Amino acid sequence: MTDGQSHESEPEWARWRRPAPATGQWRRDVSLALAVLAGAVVMTVLVNSMGASPWDSGPPLAEQLAWGVALALPLVARRRFPVTVLFVVGAVFIAVQTRRVGDNLVPSVALFLAIFSAGAWGPDRTRARWARIAVMAVMFGWLGYGLVKFLVAPTPQFEDAAGPLDPVLATVLYGIGLNMLFFLSAHFFGDMAWVSARRQAELEHRAEQLRRSQEQNTRGAIVAERVRIARDLHDVVAHHVSVMGVQAGAARRVLDRDHELAREALRTVEETARTAIGELRGLLGVLRADPEEEVREGAGATSSPGLDQLADLAEQARSAGLDVVHGVYGEPRPVPEGVALSVYRIVQEALTNVVKHADARRADVRVRFLEKSLEVEVTDDGRGRNGLSGGAGFGLVGMRERVAVHGGELEAGPRRDVGYRVCARFPA
């Protein structure tokens, strides 16, 4: 397997690399290095002043302070170049002990910070791991060298020893155990810091993905709502305005000859206008309604048109001069409000297209309650495909959208002999 294939097979966050430290973190590293330097100066002065150095002889005080500077200075770059700082501090640590500097506490703290930083900030995890292992191996080798020198030297007197173990054995075990705890703690906490940073980055990444997903969902909901509003407005306005146009034209043509027929046509225009305004107000009321009010007040409302109002649509089309036959077949059963509204709008749009474009004399509206579906069919005896040309835009698209919402099917096209057929099926 190639390197590229192996990388592709790894989890996304297994290849994460910690970003470079920010300016504020670099300033904290400078402060930390200054604190280590101050500690080295204080401890060196105190140890030399007390004569508490573990060595019989050592370098001058000025050289010991210089070694303190050499230990603290690399810590300024511990986040930017963690592995390099680890090697430098490790080498200086051995040099400090070789020169027999009196203080051993601050050098140990500096080495701990260097091992920790390599684990927490090493960009190449493999390199950081092996660098720490190498430094710890060298340190244990240095410890072994010191223990061998201790064992071959004349045995010191342990006048106050009172434990069950041999004093020399206890000294060796104490040195090994303390150093193991020291190095393993630095290694463990460094890895923990790196894992914590990766998890924090992963949480931030997922939070950003969630925010973008929410924005996308919001935009999708807005677009869907706009489409729904446009569809409803088209269905309401197109149908009623078409009827009003036909009736107004009929009134104009017979106004001088038959006042009663003209009066009846104008009455139909008036009633259709009121119906259109009522439906538009209902639609606007839904758009302006507070969601909580809809839950409290809308549960028992039945203002949306449905199957019961199909007869009214047929009557309106008859008033426009179209002979409409409306029939219901099968055993009627309750239908969800959304499906009933979609059936109503499809019939409304189909009859509107027949009145406006088909030049038809007759139309059939049939509702069939089948065993596994609800079917509504509108046919006419007009001009077929040509008759729909003026209304094949948003109207037919709106029909398909309404049917698709409920998982149904729509068939629309010219009939074999004459006219046009629209058939929508909704799953039961």
Automatic annotation (TrEMBL):
Top-level lineage group: Bacteria
Catalytic activity entry: ATP + protein L-histidine = ADP + protein N-phospho-L-histidine
Residue stretches spanning the membrane: 30-47, 81-99, 130-148, 168-189
InterPro entries the UniProt entry points to: DUF7134 (IPR055558), HATPase_C_sf (IPR036890), HATPase_dom (IPR003594), Sensor_HK_TwoCompSys (IPR050482), Sig_transdc_His_kin_sub3_dim/P (IPR011712)
EC assignment: 2.7.13.3
Keyword Kinase applies: yes
One GO cellular component, as annotated: membrane
Limits of the Histidine kinase/HSP90-like ATPase domain: 338-428
A GO term, aspect molecular function: phosphorelay sensor kinase activity
The entry's keywords: ATP-binding, Kinase, Membrane, Nucleotide-binding, Phosphoprotein, Transferase, Transmembrane, Transmembrane helix, Two-component regulatory system
EC category name: transferase
Protein name: histidine kinase
Originating species: Saccharothrix carnea
